[in-house]
Amino acid sequence: MNNIDYKKVKAWPFQEALKLKNRVSKINNKKIVTFETGYGPSGAPHIGTFAEVLRTNMVRNCLEEISDFSTNLITFSDDLDALRKVPEDYPFPDKLKEYIDYPLSMIPDFTEKYESYADRNNNLLKSFLNNFKFDYNFISSTDYYINGKFDQQLLKILDNYESIINIILPTLRKERRESYSPFLPICKKTKKVLQVPIKVVDKKNGVIAYRENNQYKETLVTGGSCKLQWKIDWAMRWSALNIDYEMNGKDLIPSFDLSSQIANFIENKIPSNMSYELFLDEKGEKISKSKGNGLSIDEWLNYGSSESLSLFMYNNPKRAKKLYFDCIPKSMDEYRKLFISLQNQSITKILDNPLWHIHQKNIPTNTYPIDFTNLLNLVTALNTTNNQTIKDFVKIYLKEEINVLDEKELDKIILLSIKYYKNFIFPNISKRKPDIKESQAIKKLLFEIKNLNDEISAEDYQNIVFKVGKEIFPDDLRKWFISLYQILFGSDSGPRLGSFFNVYGKKKVLFLLEDTIK
Questions:
Q1: Does residue 365 register a pLDDT over 70?
Q2: Which long-range contacts link 430-435 to residues 24+ away (Cβ below 8 Å)?
Q3: Distance between CA 115 and CA 96 in Å, rounded?
Q4: How far is the C-alpha of 279 from the C-alpha of 297, rounded, in Å?
Q5: What does the alpha-carbon distance between residue 123 and residue 45 come to, in Å, rounded to a whole number?
Q6: Residue among 29, 78, 30 nearest 244 (CA)
Q7: What is the rounded distance in angstroms from the CA atom of residue 442 to the CA atom of residue 518?
Q8: Which spans in 421-457 are helix H?
């Protein structure tokens, strides 16, 4: 432990960690603090699932920083849950449709790469988490139910059956109340998860009965013969896994409150909790696994760095945010700005900086030497996807030596910028023709540049652009620059024109300008 006053650190993960520390410090002989994130593998993991693990892990890192507690992060997959509907983005919807109401872990993987449908989705999630170097323990619901690891809690729920039912029923529609049961039997014949009324037969030995073909069939609640409804399942896991901290989306606040009431009849274990706002797609709709809407993790990482994705997740977790492709350049630029701001900061300021949390306490020593937006503008202006050409232009544009490590980072973001340019900028480029006044200004600009010698500096070019602008657009110089960007590059902004013209070369600049007024 050190002498840092962590109460002065305003970063939200530290605030959460302080709250958690105060709570768990009151528990006798507490040595390990356990964090949980839950995942329903009914569809491929979406970016919200990843965000929950990332944010939870940030709180975990802060707790380790401010205390002597050991920590454990559990990623729990509810893979014994039944498939209720076919995800819109699944490649074999007709085949999957035949397995409605089957446990996710007992549905074949039609891609033929994994043991089951759930195993496919679980592995997709683990792959993302491994790429981000998270330290976590993956737990399968199927494994814990079938191997009796939840049996103690299941019997406790059966023993308090009436009390739990009385909590749940008032929250349900009238028609749902008639068929509701905390236990969902798994039919031995069809293997389907049944949503049927049950009759408690023997609490001591854990036996219930349900109607099938006008007769009662008895089954144990233990050993994987039944699964719990999810709100009760959630409360049960807090006790079985000894969970101290868990986040959830704002839409699940009522569910958390309900599960907290249920937990009082199991082992009275209710974790410290933070609710976060949901991610929205470009239309403002909630991102959903079944719909497959919104931006996926793979899509972000195809055009932006993993650090920029983590930064987007870190920022304002209690504010709803639209998640679409325009967010990527902004987040890339913000990351670089935060990296630069770290220089010569106090330890408190460093702990407040999102990069400390994004990089799990180990902030790198280098980053890319140019803003991503500037790089995109340069690629757009050059109208090229050649890596080396872009790199050469960047080096000249920056007018400074780039060290080896920064150059490696530059290589990475040039590849990202080319992909982004190809997919989002190039298809929408729409250079416009200059009007009479603008044509007059461009002719004047051509005349001035032609009369310069071949050794023209970036400042020379910039001064000429200013000079012509002041003559033709004396009352609105900004309009002159926007006009040039629209005419030359098809956008409202771009690289500093003096620097770009200097890099591009006199001959090409003259050709570019002449082409606009032909």
A1: yes
A2: 430/490, 431/486, 431/487, 431/488, 431/489, 431/490, 431/516, 432/486, 432/487, 432/490, 433/487, 433/516, 434/483, 434/487, 434/516, 434/517
A3: 15
A4: 13
A5: 10
A6: 30
A7: 11
A8: 436-450
Which pLDDT value is given to residue 295?
75
Tokens of 480: 């002159």
Q: How confident is the model at residue 348 (pLDDT cuts 50, 70, 90)?
A: very high
Quote the tokens at residue 267.
Answer: 């082992």
Q: Is 68 helix (H, G, I), strand (E, B) or coil?
A: coil
Q: CB under 8 Å to 281, separation ≥6 — which residues?
A: 287, 293, 294, 295, 322, 323, 324
**DSSP annotation string for 139-187:** EEHHHHHHTTTTHHHHHHHHHTHHHHHHHHGGGS-HHHHHH--SEEEB-
Give the CA radius of gyration of the chain: 30
- What are the boundaries of each domain within the chain? 372-428, 436-516
Query: Has residue 249 got a pLDDT over 80?
Result: yes
Assign residue 120 a region (left: φ > 0; alpha: ψ between -120 and 50; beta: otherwise). alpha
What are the φ and ψ backbone dihedral angles of 243, each rounded to 5 degrees? -80, 130
Residue bearing tokens 């913000």? 334
- Quote the pTM value: 0.89
CB 209 within 8 A of CB 216: yes
Tell me if residue 280 falls in helix, strand or coil. strand
- Cβ of 283: how many Cβ atoms within 10 Å? 9
Count of CB atoms situated within 10 Å of the CB of 319:
8
501, 440 contact by CB (below 8 A): no
Residue 249, beta-bridge partner list = 276
Q: What is the pLDDT of residues 375-399, one digit of tens each?
A: 998 998 888 899 998 998 899 888 8
Domain 436-516 class? mainly alpha
